[in-house]
Structure formats: C-alpha cells, structure tokens
Amino acid sequence: MGGSTFGERFAVTTFGESHGGALGVVIDGCPARIELSEADVQADLDRRRPGQSRLVTQRDEADRVSIHSGVFEGLTLGTPIGMTVANTDARPGAYADMVDLYRPSHADYTTEAKYGIRSWQGGGRASARETVGRVAAGAVARKMLAAAGAEVLGWVSAVRDIVAEVDPAEVTREAVEAHPTRCPDPAAAARIAEAIEAVRRDGDSVGGVVTCVSRGVPPGLGEPVFDKLDAELARAVMSLPAAKGIEIGSGFAGTLMTGRTHNDEFAPGPHGRPVVLTNRSGGIQGGISNGADIVLRVAFKPTATIASQQRTVTRQGEPTVLAARGRHDPCVLPRAVPMVEAMVCLVLADHLLRQQTTQLAPGSSPRA
Amino acid sequence: MGGSTFGERFAVTTFGESHGGALGVVIDGCPARIELSEADVQADLDRRRPGQSRLVTQRDEADRVSIHSGVFEGLTLGTPIGMTVANTDARPGAYADMVDLYRPSHADYTTEAKYGIRSWQGGGRASARETVGRVAAGAVARKMLAAAGAEVLGWVSAVRDIVAEVDPAEVTREAVEAHPTRCPDPAAAARIAEAIEAVRRDGDSVGGVVTCVSRGVPPGLGEPVFDKLDAELARAVMSLPAAKGIEIGSGFAGTLMTGRTHNDEFAPGPHGRPVVLTNRSGGIQGGISNGADIVLRVAFKPTATIASQQRTVTRQGEPTVLAARGRHDPCVLPRAVPMVEAMVCLVLADHLLRQQTTQLAPGSSPRA
Amino acid sequence: MGGSTFGERFAVTTFGESHGGALGVVIDGCPARIELSEADVQADLDRRRPGQSRLVTQRDEADRVSIHSGVFEGLTLGTPIGMTVANTDARPGAYADMVDLYRPSHADYTTEAKYGIRSWQGGGRASARETVGRVAAGAVARKMLAAAGAEVLGWVSAVRDIVAEVDPAEVTREAVEAHPTRCPDPAAAARIAEAIEAVRRDGDSVGGVVTCVSRGVPPGLGEPVFDKLDAELARAVMSLPAAKGIEIGSGFAGTLMTGRTHNDEFAPGPHGRPVVLTNRSGGIQGGISNGADIVLRVAFKPTATIASQQRTVTRQGEPTVLAARGRHDPCVLPRAVPMVEAMVCLVLADHLLRQQTTQLAPGSSPRA
Amino acid sequence: MGGSTFGERFAVTTFGESHGGALGVVIDGCPARIELSEADVQADLDRRRPGQSRLVTQRDEADRVSIHSGVFEGLTLGTPIGMTVANTDARPGAYADMVDLYRPSHADYTTEAKYGIRSWQGGGRASARETVGRVAAGAVARKMLAAAGAEVLGWVSAVRDIVAEVDPAEVTREAVEAHPTRCPDPAAAARIAEAIEAVRRDGDSVGGVVTCVSRGVPPGLGEPVFDKLDAELARAVMSLPAAKGIEIGSGFAGTLMTGRTHNDEFAPGPHGRPVVLTNRSGGIQGGISNGADIVLRVAFKPTATIASQQRTVTRQGEPTVLAARGRHDPCVLPRAVPMVEAMVCLVLADHLLRQQTTQLAPGSSPRA
C-alpha cells in the first residue's frame, strides 16, 4: 500500500488533496450495531474546521460530511463506512508562484523526490487538510469507544513557553472547549491567544504541545512486541502534520529518575484488579494497557508557512527567495487537538477489536 | 496478527520467550543477491549480548545465531531468512517467587489481563530478550542499507543528567564502541559508568537517552500520510522495552522556537538536488526523507527490576511486598544502542523497498 | 480489516451497498505518472453497467464515475485515487417483502448470522452492485498494465452446455464486444442469447464459464509460497458474486493426463529467454509467471434470484414460501466478463509492483 | 512481504528450502489457552512425511518437530508459536546436473526470472517440502477448531480417471487412513495403488482430485467482498504445489443447471437456525458460511518430475535434453490430503477469530 491505511481490524483509508475535488475516508471493520449518524461525525469535524476562530486559518470550508454506506436505520452494518467532504474554498491560483520552487520545511521537495510529480496547489496530500478523513473516522471510533466505556480528551498544554497548569486527571471537555485556544487553563489560554495574535501580525508562527488522556480503557489492549500500545500511539500521533515528538507517561523527564522512584507500585483495586499508586507508566506497561489513564504529550513545531523572506531553490536547482502567501494557521495547536484525539481513538478502537481475538470466544461451536 | 510482525515489504516476524527453548526471527521480503553470512548477524548480536561488560546483566548467553534458510553460497535468495538463537542460561527457578504476584512496572499484570495466562519464567514475551530476533534481522537490513549507501549509528547521549557533548554529524562507530557505556564522549562515559556502578550497588537503576543518526539515506523514503518516515521510526523505537519518548530533529525543544528560526532553508546542492542549510527537520519533511541526516532521540526509563522492597498485589488480589531477584541490567542504555539501530535499520530497509514501487520501473514490458 | 481491501502494493478498498447513497473505491499505491482520465474508467464501467442490453438486468444506472483525488493534469500523483458512483435507480421499496425472510442461495441469512443486522434493501453489500468499485479500480490497473505491455481479455466461453469454439490465443476484444453475450464465437453467441431469453421468460436463470487470457505478462510475477500468482488469481475471481470454481491452464482436465504428456517442454526463445512449446501450465509455473499467456476459466452458478416459488424460512424461524421480484440478470455471464478482467488486472498490477522490490534497484544510493 | 505469510489474525509465516538446514513456521495470533503439545503437531506431519509408504517419495525424513515458543505447561500463551523441522536426508549432490538447466514444468526458470538467483539443490523454496511448515501450523489450527466444534477431513477422490464413490457427508478419517492412497473407497483405492505403481515403473506420473469437507463450522465466517470464505479457501489450496483448479459446492457442474434446480431451499432447523435442504452452495452463501458442510475439490496435475527425456534449455539459452533423477512422488495425491486439510484449517481458524471482531463484545468496559 501507499501508507494511506491505518489499523488492522478497525482499518481506515483516507484519500484527497488540499485542493482536489473532495476528501474522504473508508472505515473497514467497524463492528455492526454501533449507533451512528452524520451529526456524530460533524461534531468532531467542526472542531477541526478552518475558520472556526480568529486564531486559525481563515480558509472558509464548511466541511459537511456525507456518509455513503455502512449505516442503516441509525446503526452500523459492519460493512465499510464511506464518507466524503467536498473542497469548496480551494484557491489553487494562490499557489501559482510555487509551481517551480520548494517551500522551506514543507513537503514540496520531498514529494517530488518521491513521486517525480507534485500537485503544486497547496500542500497536496501533505496538507493538514488530509486530516479531515482522520477526524471523521476518529468520530466513529469515539462512538465505539463510548459504547465500551472509554473516552479520549486532548488539550493544548503549551504554546512556546506558555504552559498550562492543570491536572490531567481533572481536565474536562467543557474546560477545553471554553476557549478557542483549547487550553483549559484560563490564564495560560489568554496568554496563548495573545502570543498567537502577535506572531500572526509579525508574519511568523509558533508551536507547542498537546496533551491527551484516555480514560476508562480496559486493561489488556496492545500487543507485547512491535504493536505495543505506546508504539502504536506514537506512530499515530507522529503521523500528524508538524508533529516532532511524543512522550508517554513520564517520558523524557522519567530519564532523570531512578527505578526506585519511577516504578508504579500496585495496590488492590475494585473488581479484584490491581491499581497503580502512581502513573509514571502512563497507563501502559510492557506495551499493554493496565486500566489507568493513558497520558501522552505531542510536540508540534511552528507552522512552516510564514510571511518572511526565505532562501530556497527552484525545481531547476537555481537559488531564489520566497515569501509565502495563502491562508494558513499561525499556530496549529488549537486545531491539532481534535486531530490528536482522532488518532488516539483510532488506535484504541483497533486494539479493542484485536483484543477480542486473544482468546477463543465461548459458544463458538454451532453444536453448543 | 498478534503484533509480532514488523514491516510491509521487508517484513520481520519474531518469536520466543525469555526462558523458552529458543528465540528466532523470519525475514520475508529481503531482496535477492545481498551478501550475507552468519558472521554479519553475529556482530550485531554480540553488541546486544548480556554479559558483555560489568555494566550490564550477567546472564551468560553466547547468543550464537543459526541461519536456516534464504541464503545460498553467501547470497540471499529472496526467500525467507529464518534464524534462531538458543536460550542456554535460562534459570526459570529464579522466578519461582513470582508465580503468583505482579512485579511493579513490569508486564506481569498486563500480560495476564490480556491473555488470561502468563509464563512466569522471567518476562516471557515481554522480556528484552525478545530483541534478539530484532537485532538479528536488523543486521540483515543493515547489509542491505550498506549496499544502498546508507549507515545507521546510535550512541548513549545521556544517562540520568549526565549528557554527552558531541556533534551528531561527527560521531563514529569507533568512538561509540570505545567504551562499554557506548557513550562517545569520554568524559561523560566515565561519569556514566560510575553512575551505573553506583545504582547497581544500591539495588537501584537509571535511565537515559539514545541518539541515532542515519546517514546517506536517499530522499523520497516514507509515505505522506500514516506511514510517514518519522511516524514509522517512532513506532519502531517506541516498541523497544522501556522506551517512553521519541523526538525527531528539533523535537520538544522545537516547540520553543518560531517558524522564522525553525524553518530549514534550501540551497543548491550536488547532483542538482537542494540541500538544507540547517537540519531542524531531522532529515524528514512531510514524512519523507530529504537526504539530510535523520536524527532521533529515544528516552528509556530506569530499569523496572530493582532490589528494593516494593508494594504490589498477588494474582488473588492480596497486597504483598516484593524484592526482585534475578540477573538484570541496572541501566539498559548500553545494550539499547544496537536495539535502536536495529529498529531504525528495519524501517529504512522497508521504506527503501517500498519506494521502489512508487513509479513503474522502465523495461517492465517483456516486449521491450 | 473487514475484507474490503485487496492487494498489497496496488491496494484497493471498496465501499457501498446496492441501495445506499453511493458506491466507491480508493486505490492506494498506484504508481505516479500513469496517464489517467475519468473516460478511461468509464469505458470499463459501461461494459459492467446494468441495462446495457436486453440480456441483463433492466435496472437503469448510468454509473458515472467521479475521480476525487490522486490525479493531476492527466497523470496519477502516486497518492490515493478516490472514486465514487452514485446509486440513482435504487428502489428499496421493491424489497419490502424480504425484510423478514431469507432468499434461498442469497447472502441474506449468512449476513444476518455474521453481523446480527442486515440491510434488507436488495443484496446490501453482497449485491453484484458492489463490483462497481472493483471495475473502476481494474480500469486503472489496466492502464498501468498497458504501460508495461500487458493486456487482459475475457469472454463468455460457455453458458450452460453451449460452448464457444475459439482459440484463446486468437480471441480479440472486437470479437468479444461484437455481441451482447460477450461470446466471441458467433454461432454459440446466438444460441446463448436464445437460451438466456428462454430462461428469462420462464422465470429461471442459467450459469456458465468465463475464460480470461492475460498476454504480455513479464516472467517473474507471483511469489513462491502462499501468494503464488495462480493462488492470487483464484482468490480474486472466486471473490466475485456467483463464482463457484476456477481452473488455471489444464485445470481439472489435466488430472486425466500423465506427466509425460502434461509437462511443457522448453525451447530457446527471443531475448535469450526460454519459451514453452505447450501451455498446460497456463502461463504460471511454481506460482510465478513464465511469460506465456495466463489462461484461466471461472465457473458462475445460475443467478439465485428467480421468479419461481421456493421454500424458505423467516427471521423468526417460521417456514414460508417466496417468489422473488425485483430486477435481476437471468444470466450474469455477459456482465461477469469485465468483472473477471478487473480482478485479473488488480492481481497483475499488484504483483508487477511487488516484483519491483525483489531486487535492490541500482542507484539507490544518494552518493552514487 | 514476500508472500510467505498467510492469514490476518491467525497468521502463519513459513521458511525453508528443500535442502537448506531446516524448515519452520511461526504462528502469530493463536489464541491463548488452547491445549497443545508436540505430539499434536507430529501426528499431522507423519501423514505428510515422505517415505510413509511405497506409493510416495522414498526420501527418508523423520520430520520431527520442535516447538520453541508460545506454549507453557501444555497451553498456548497467545504469543508466537515457533516450530522447526530439520532437513536430515537432503542430497543436494543429486541435483548437480541441474545447476545450469531448467526442468520442464518446474519453477526453475521462473524462480531465476524472479530473483536473478536460484538454489539449484532440489526445488528450493518451490519444493513441496515447504509444506512442512503449513502442515505443522495447520495442526495447531485444527486443535483450535476442535475446541470450537469443527473438523476438517480430506481424501483422494480421484486419480486420473479412477473415481471414488463415496458420500462426502459419510466419509470418516478411519476410512481415509485405512489405505495408503487415502482413498476411502476400497475398490477405487486398490485400482489407484495399481495405477501409481504402474506409472512409477514407467518413469511417468499421474494427478487427481482431493475432496475436503469441513463439518461443524459455525455460520457467519467469511467476509462479504474480497475475503469471501470461498475465495480464501480457493487461494489457500491453489497455493499448494501442483494445484490447478478448485471447486466449491456444485462447482463447474453447477454451470449446467438452472437456478430453479440449483438453489438451496431453507427449512427451519435446530436452535432456530435455518438449514438448507440441499447443499449446492457447498456450505457458503455470499462468501459467508451457512452452517452446512463446506465441500471443496482440488485438482492436482501429474508430478512434473519424470524419468523420461524432455527437451529444455540451459541458463545460457542453449537447447538440451533432460532425464530427471532424484527421489520424487509418482503421484502427489496421498500426501496432498494433509496439505489440503492444513490449508483449510488455517483459513477457518483465521476467519473464526476475525468473526470475533464483527460485533463489540459485551463487558468491554472496565467500569462494567
């Protein structure tokens, strides 16, 4: 494949370029009999949508989703769920200057090195617009996880050096959505909004960190070797545009501790299950969920599109300078939150199903 | 599958537990006509081997590899390469105390939650011993990459707060292998050795960071969406035991910069290809290699096995205390270096092959 | 996954039910720089389309395809090609009688046994209408194969006991398309048309055989073990609705011969390649193409939908009788031809790409 | 991958050449807590073993299996099961004549066309000896199927024009194993034994048909589109050496019937499930099992290795003649029976697990 499919049992395939006719996604393997409507999907797309606030790109896309298959009378059929979203405010002409040159820290050069051809209309397949399909699929995964008692919640925990002071165990969706920055610490949110406004005016950009917690995940998800749950989550979020790092639990800070202080001791918990007294493992031990909150942090670099003049080269190998135009986000963080959540939902949904094959189900026999 | 296969074209499947009869690996999809001998594989296994220095576990395993298939007269056949390594110094009896309790921050509880059964002899499938198969396969990938002009080099760049001061572009394998810590900064290496000795005497453990650079990787590797090269590398190294975080290029530090300072400008380079004037992207842009060095950093937590008393629970849900015995590494970092290299080699080899299908090869026609 | 994806490198994912909003397909892994237009795809869809002649179902669907992504200025980009076809003449009301009962030899009961839910509007996912996506994808594969010098041609070689007398090596597309039966033997074609008309009038149905030949396939395609080219072709065509058998080369008749008469001797051929003096192998030896024509035959059962009264049971387990209504094909063979061709094209395109990774491409090194 | 892995959840990877050091297999995804011992696996290997009677090749291989991992105290762990069988009676020298020429209807030429290299010692990877791994894995699948109430039974139903007269619903393993031909019709068995002896003396070979019935398979297995259960079975058995055709249920003979006589009417059955009054569907409708016996027939061509002189060409393109030597089966049918069974077991085990993800399992929530 060409790397546009994600997941083994809950398998998601996306298609679409930033300025093509439509973006879309197919989910193959969603279990039957999950309640699902277009409104469920639209809710997450609206959180990802451009133009939702002054802090993000002003490209005006309604991003209305159509579900073409796989749902019947409000329930999933178990068959593939095909969905599309039309591109309506594409302005390819705005990119005419870029036909023959490579924008720094974009995928222009690498795309051409890979394929020998490139759609110069916006970022093509490398555009963050591709995440429309991921977020739509993530909304379906979220419905399935809810049916299993799990929820996934992300927020902006830092922009540049402005850090939210919150307890991951206490953050609520209401607190996150209360501010267009999606930072649940009101004081930090205000400073972040100012910082984004400032770089926007300056033609510059900033990055930051998204934290994501998954609550109510049953123990046992993840495989012991290559498909460890943390490895799968790392791949998932690192596949988002502009992601440059990921930590689970104690992460890089954990390297400064010793085993004696880092280990999570066990105590007896409800239903006869052990519970951890601390959570430096971030909810995953040996690659498998232990029932505690799964906590991860994702680093996003500053947006590559800036208004400053930058040195670059043409397709013909000549040096030149570029000052990018076009609509873009001065900071991807607010819109990155639903993207990170979507990817985490996809991983958990997939592993929830995979876990259903770890033992033979009782009553498999027709003679029973 | 059960998550024991890695890679799409250069596909590696491992098997084996820490105290089973043998560990092994099958590589399916290695190209034909690559030079390969058991000595090539043994060289990397020897760097991973327990007992190689005082700093690592004293379990005494020769880890001699046997190649059973896929090689003929010194060349790969294109068919699966099956390899095994016998467990010879397994001492399952040492684990008899652990039949009925869960070691903190190990995979004991999560394994049982997943499968409803667990081999209590050491870590079972979750043991770092499983990486024997990965390192053997990585050695084959390394041979293939060398034929394509690429090399992968890792080293210990930090243990706890002791940080190596080296330029990633200048580190050599000789400098890395010159000290049993695998830290190429001699001053830091000496301090790291002392720190490891100190925690060993104290029955404690430490963690740290491995840095890995891949040189000579052709531009164009990686896919634009889910299978971005950085996402694949992240999954690969995060699947190693004890890994808690990964950064590519500027990583988390990059979130403190603005776009103007973070972007990598282009200049004309050799062969008509653009080259980056800085490398904050870490050799990957839009998920695709750009020909610059690929630089990543992996955080490893302190070893979970320590000699101190820790609170835990039994399988029956009763609280108890544990003081682990058995041979173990007070610090996994020196042995993690070949493991990280192996995983990076596997990703690059797989994507090098995948890239060969991105365009139709000339002369496909038998009528040509 | 849920089995809606086909192919490893040229990977096709379909979605859509017989009476849902739309049918579609995503191709991930099509090489870049292949010439492609909607007209190329439409040509094959028109051959599959209902209502194309009196011999097939009279459901009136234009089956106009839209390409949403992956093509730019007439060339493939290497990114996913998303395509949809709207359902416009769906008449779900015609199936209201079938909400609560299972049509004999259809997928009604088995679908409900599988998912615990079923769209009773037509065949749902099991409908032959699902093959719209396959044929659209097959048309893209056909373009790629043409660029490699290969062509795939199918025809109706038998309906019931009426057998076409043609030499597979000599059949042309013109001869096949000259008659609505898609039988290139004019005398047999006339008799087949009569037979189909007769069963239609009688409320009955008939089956038959499609033969398919692939010419110009380079030697070396197919893998030596599970993914033998003949195994892959068998799976491909047996996944078509109503297929009940497949033969390659000598097939079942070959079991009546001895090795001495069955073996295909070699003689020196052009370009220093051996050629077979006979072709009982059907172009594949040891699962790998040998450069000779690949010849296969597919058995299709009589259409399950008939107008006669048949015994069946309701969802509640009560016996009942059914006389199906709704528009249907009295014989699937004429429309099965483009379906078989599409599946064969998909297999060959996939293996053509897979073969490009069997050896390391020269010039992989950026230092070369 | 290189096509040496089979199955999506119950995934089997084989390795080994006919004259390499060892053959082996890894099963990834076998559920935990299935009873398994080496004796279980050996039983099926003994039925596949060369030298088991005068009717088969006289190569003397004990084919003793070693299980290296994945089993603990008589139960599967859910982790990969690695198994090997050593080659002990390899006589590569017997093939020295064949270094430079291509045996007719073998894989010699196609292997070299594919990889640019070939192990000339026997059939290499294309040898039927590769099926050791399949049969070992199939034995594990058989154990799992037995736990689910299903059994798989094959037999020789024809050699050349000698056809067994038996009712597939009544055949027993005892009747099959009562004669070295594995034909459960004693009269036909005797004639088949004579026919095989005759061609052996004559330096010739014969082919035939294996029939396989799967009983007790629950309804609901198989996916509605590409991974139809019949398609998967077709691929599975067509990947066996020398297979040239496959039929499910009515197969090619069904093309001679009309829908009215071909359709399987339903009647109320036990447990409220419908049962079919006939079984022309062969236990599969719309690609999904319906609970009836799954019946398939596989055509095997006459063994390609014969003692007669045949025309061929050398690697240098020169015409030559060949009279093969070496030990071989004059008829593969008796040994093909366990191979067919193994492949059918692998498909059913895989789809039994896949079916466990079609709906969300109750009690997935840790808060339940």
Structure explained in plain terms:
Four copies of one chain form a homotetramer. In chain A, strand 1 and strand 2 form a beta hairpin. Chain A has a single domain, classed as Chorismate synthase, AroC fold. With 368 residues, chain A is α+β, with helices and mostly antiparallel strands. Chain A has eight helices and 18 strands. The model of chain A has no long low-confidence stretch (mean pLDDT 93). The interface between A and B is large, with 114 and 114 residues. Strand 11 (243-248) of chain A pairs antiparallel with strand 11 of chain B.
Strand content of chain A: 15-25%
Provide the CATH superfamily of chain A: Chorismate synthase AroC
Spatial strand order of the main sheet of chain A: 1-2-3-7-4
Second CATH tier, the architecture of chain A = 4-Layer Sandwich
Oligomer: homotetramer
Q: Which chains share the greatest interface?
A: A-B, 114 and 114 residues
Q: How far is the first residue's CA from the last residue's CA of chain A?
A: 41 Å
Specify the biggest β-sheet of chain A. 5 strands, antiparallel
What is the 3D form of chain A? globular
